UniProtKB/TrEMBL annotation, chain A:
Protein's membrane topology: Multi-pass membrane protein
Transmembrane segments: 61-84, 90-112, 145-163, 169-194, 206-223, 261-280
Name recorded for this polypeptide: Transport permease protein
Main location: membrane
Keywords, comma-separated and alphabetical: Antibiotic resistance, Cell membrane, Membrane, Transmembrane, Transmembrane helix, Transport
Source organism (scientific name): Microbispora siamensis
A UniProt-annotated Pfam family: ABC2_membrane
Phylogenetic placement of the source organism: Bacteria, Bacillati, Actinomycetota, Actinomycetes, Streptosporangiales
Subcellular compartments: Cell membrane; Membrane
Record field: compositional bias (Low complexity): 1-15
Ranges where the ABC transmembrane type-2 domain occurs: 59-286
Family the entry assigns: Belongs to the ABC-2 integral membrane protein family.
Disordered: annotated segments: 1-30
UniProtKB/TrEMBL annotation, chain B:
Family matches, as PROSITE patterns: ABC_TRANSPORTER_1, ABC_TRANSPORTER_2
One MF annotation (Gene Ontology) recorded for this entry: ATP binding
Residues in ABC transporter domain copies: 7-237
Keywords: Antibiotic resistance, ATP-binding, Cell membrane, Membrane, Nucleotide-binding, Translocase, Transport
UniProt-listed Pfam families: ABC_tran (PF00005)
Identification of the protein by name: Daunorubicin resistance protein DrrA family ABC transporter ATP-binding protein
Similarity comment: family membership: Belongs to the ABC transporter superfamily. Drug exporter-1 (DrugE1) (TC 3.A.1.105) family.
Compartment list: Cell membrane
Membrane-protein topology: Peripheral membrane protein
């Protein structure tokens, strides 16, 4: 009996056309949300897309390449004597500061580029696909880890070239760079959120500048906080960038994993916990 | 799943500020049909489609696709609907193959499977040769084909086509139509918007005419055209032929006055029935009148609009132009 059915099925003419689409089967197959594993695959696919774009538009690496070289050298020779007595004394203060500033600049680019990207037709398709809403946001941010990495390494190397000798040694440097990358990635969620809210890429750029300058200059990135007037010192002390800078200093200069490092990591975690959901919500509502 | 409707929408509403873009549209698309939504620019066609595709929030009314609530279960809807937009929504910075691979991967296909499907679709849509070229070198038709291919990766049972042939040349348009017909043979249901009556006529089994956010008619294309009336027989008489005599002949045969342009020897004759065209031609020959050119014009969307709404399809644009 079984053999006869088998032969009868093989005997039916096989067409190249695939099976007819069955709507009720398709409905039965649907799921109400993407599983965690599926979401991860989607995030990676979006990261792959961002990497492809980076490779095809290398000009977007300009900020990543120029700023560490230019700012490190410029700030060291201009402020070095005035603030710390000499360039070599200033470098241990400056390099962690520049690291934080560079990370913030790259963050800003993340928000601006996301906004530009979202105006393109392909985002309509992303929205129409059954994918987790976080994937189009998190994908590019994973690819951006490369940019944070390049920027931080370049900053440290420039410092080494003009005479910086980090007391923390190789491990300290690796730790400092790693913390910078983590901090940059976490803070980028703020700018991603801005990117999903703002009307145009230009407005993202404008708003980001207004956030970035106070955050970096009203911190201990370039000058010791105790030289500032009291009210300013109070702000500088709560500024999260100050904590990141102090933590990176501890790692680079002393190779020490201090409480500051812990605070910086906790601060980053809080930023992600607050702004990632905000960004996803604003992105899903934008459609 | 006894209900055989693919789309069931009741009094859909969408507001943009004070402007009501979609104003209580009912839509009922049966499984396996091609349903056309016909209307001019700005009538609310795209907005309606975007609401049904979960790309825009629904402000009022209720919509179901294969029995799944659009507002409550957007993720399920996205698994059932393939959307192909008016403007090709593919990634300009990737190649055709990379686009298809990415969309397949996002929908949970393994990397190998995604590669196979991308290859198959490129072949089916005649894009193999251009597969690895940047999209900036693609023609409008190629982009549109890639866009459609991208919507078919998971073989969704319902496909939205938003003005699939706007801006395409006639040959590419014909190819697109063939592809769309094939999709229905595979078992898909298609909801398509268009500005062209002939496109709706060619493809759709039923058509809804949308104007200013409201549905003004729903019927088969043939019935719509009959409602509008008639085709027009356009004649140009040979030099020196007597236009007055020709008009008499027409009046006698059809009982209607032709529209005359005597200087150029042109006549436009409304035909209650296309069959009568032959009568007119024979009548003219018997009267000894020569004809230098002849054509039968079908009713245009503009005429359908005029008949259904009392105003032309592109009236707002004309006002703006003045």
């Amino acid at each position: 009996m079984t053999t006869s059915t088998a032969t009868s099925t093989t005997a039916t003419p096989t067409t190249r056309a695939p099976q007819r689409i069955d709507p009720s089967a398709a409905v039965a197959r649907t799921t109400s949300r993407s599983s965690l594993q599926a979401t991860w695959v989607q995030v990676l696919a979006m990261a792959w897309r961002a990497l492809k774009k980076m490779r095809r538009k290398p000009e977007q690496f300009f900020d990543v390449l120029i700023q560490p070289l230019l700012f490190t050298a410029m700030f060291a020779f201009i402020f070095g004597g005035a603030i710390s007595g000499s360039v070599s004394n200033y470098l241990p203060v400056l390099i962690p500061g520049i690291l934080a500033q560079t990370a913030l600049t790259v963050c800003m680019a993340t928000g601006v580029q996301l906004r530009e990207d979202m105006d393109k037709g392909v985002f309509d398709r992303f929205k129409s696909l059954p994918i987790a809403r976080i994937a189009p946001l998190a994908g590019p941010m994973i690819a951006d880890l490369i940019r944070y990495g390049i920027a931080s390494v370049l900053t440290v190397v420039t410092g080494l070239l003009i005479g910086y000798r980090p007391g923390g040694g190789v491990l300290g440097c690796v730790g400092g760079v790693a913390l910078t990358v983590i901090a940059g990635w976490s803070l980028a969620w703020i700018f991603t959120w801005l990117g999903t809210m703002a009307r145009s890429a230009q407005s993202v750029q404008g708003i980001s500048m207004m956030i970035m300058f106070p955050l970096t200059f009203l911190s201990n990135a370039f000058v010791p906080a105790d030289t500032l007037p009291g009210w300013l010192e109070a702000f500088v002390k709560v500024n999260p960038v100050s904590h990141v800078v102090s933590a990176v200093r501890d790692l680079l200069n002393d190779g020490a994993v201090t409480a500051e490092v812990g605070w910086a990591v906790i601060g980053c975690a809080i930023v992600v916990a607050v702004f990632a959901p905000l960004a996803v919500r604003s992105y899903s509502r934008k459609m | 799943m006894a209900d055989l409707s693919a789309v069931r929408a009741d009094s859909l509403v969408k507001n943009f500020g004070d402007f009501r873009a979609v104003d209580g549209i009912d839509l009922h698309v049966r499984q396996g049909e091609i349903f056309g939504v016909l209307g001019p620019n700005g009538a609310g066609k795209t907005t309606m489609l975007r609401m049904l595709a979960t790309l825009l929030p629904i402000d009022g009314g209720h919509a179901e696709i294969f029995g799944v609530d659009v507002r409550r279960e957007p993720h399920r809807i996205r698994q059932l609907v393939g959307v192909t937009g008016q403007y090709a929504s593919v990634d300009e910075d990737l190649t055709a193959r990379e686009n298809l691979w990415l969309f397949a991967r996002l929908q949970g296909l393994t990397s190998t499977r995604a590669k196979t499907i991308a290859g198959d679709l490129l072949e089916r849509f005649g894009l193999q040769e251009a597969a690895n070229r940047p999209l900036s070198q693609f023609s409008g038709g190629m982009r549109r084909r890639l866009d459609l291919a991208s919507s078919l990766i998971t073989r969704p049972p319902l496909i939205f086509l938003d003005e699939p042939t706007t801006g395409l040349d006639p040959r590419t348009r014909g190819q697109m139509w063939d592809t769309i017909r094939e999709l229905v043979t595979d078992g898909s249901t298609i909801l398509l918007t268009t500005q062209y009556l002939d496109e709706a006529d060619q493809l759709a089994g039923r058509v809804a005419v949308i104007d200013r956010g409201r549905k003004v008619a729903e019927d088969t294309p043939d019935a719509l055209k009959t409602q509008v009336g008639d085709s027009t027989l356009q004649l140009r008489l040979a030099d020196g032929a007597d236009t007055a005599l020709a008009a008499d002949v027409v009046r006698r045969l059809l009982g209607e006055d032709p529209v005359l342009t005597p200087e150029s020897g042109r006549m436009n004759i409304p035909l209650p029935d296309p069959d009568r065209a032959a009568d007119v031609l024979i009548g003219l020959r018997e009267a000894g009148l020569g004809i230098s050119s002849v054509s039968v014009a079908k009713p245009t969307l503009d005429e359908v609009f005029l008949a259904l709404t009392g105003h032309g399809a592109d009236e707002p644009q004309m006002e703006a132009a003045r």
